[in-house]
């Protein structure tokens, strides 16, 4: 019989080790929001966000944070333009009415340059505040890093992952007569467009006059092959820049932030985009990001490139008679640019004001908002926009009628980066919107537009991008 003995020091070591293991595993020592928030119990924080169906759904979860943390959240929702104007005014004035403001990526340059955003790195490193299971590697890239990071510091998480998708009429694309006629004319099957040439062919094919036949029925009004944003304002520049120009190899700014509009690639992108206007409704020059989904929902166009959160508002029973009759794909690309792929979107985050008197409590709210458990509840209805890779299986499944839309989002997000951090972005975007619209209307050629853009933007800033 084999025997062995254990020395007293070894027994002591084992006892101590067991105690340490028990301590480490004890729930009392595991991180929890309740314990992390204890010093801030009773604190009231003020959060400004924009109102879309996403935020309205998320707002229903906020009471859960309040109940667990003891922190009161004044979660205010305003429309897109009010959030930008009021939020920036509060941050830049130093009033500090809001502890955190939802800022789109396009706003970060101005606010970082003004020094009014608080970095969150110290909070992320504080074991009393930081949830060790937050798993930032799960946040969707390149949206997260391109949005949140600047100058070696982190200024937000990825909260709202706004993105554009390709949007078409499923009932038309799957009509047997239309399929046969399309393939006979263009030599390939009718399907959601993956390239700019396919977008053009589909737009040309489906543009029809009143009295002509569409899917076997005579039209009582004109029907259009495509609808896009064309307003001199808003976000018209987004798809033109991020989808058409970048996928044609164009860059509007070089690595040092200098304007580079006057190039053949930019001209090619503008030409590709403006050529589609002949197949669009005559009022497209007045269409904003809100009008495009309305036009698609009213059933007068065959395809579009649009923000997916607005698509979600249309492809719902009761919102449009065509709900369930749409199909989706990632935004299209050039067939001639190899593997490079760029899509359009506006990654956005809740940023802590440098003037906040409650930054720790605010950080706990921002962290809770992106936690996996919170996101799982947020997306449990099958409707939402993911900001985590682990969220896709919650949405792309057989019993979700919008699974195809989420597949499209997933594809688009592979090519979405946050807007370059430009302190004078709004002045630059005003120039882009005005000149882009003139190109679409045929008042300025793409070649002249590229020269004019180079001249006017260079007069505003050179370089334009924070380094």
From TrEMBL:
- PANTHER family from the xrefs? ARABINOSE-BINDING PROTEIN-RELATED, POLYGALACTURONAN_RHAMNOGALACTURONAN-BINDING PROTEIN YTCQ
Q: Which SUPFAM superfamilies match?
A: Periplasmic binding protein-like II (SSF53850)
Location in the cell: Periplasm
Family, per entry: Belongs to the bacterial solute-binding protein 1 family.
Q: Which residues belong to the signal peptide in this entry?
A: 1-30
Q: Which species does this protein come from?
A: Hartmannibacter diazotrophicus
The cross-references to InterPro entries, in alphabetical order and at most eight, read: Bact_solute-bd_prot1, SBP
Keywords (A to Z) from UniProt = Cell membrane, Lipoprotein, Membrane, Palmitate, Periplasm, Signal
Q: What is this protein called?
A: Maltose-binding periplasmic protein
User: Top-down, what is the taxonomic lineage of the species of origin?
Assistant: Bacteria, Pseudomonadati, Pseudomonadota, Alphaproteobacteria, Hyphomicrobiales
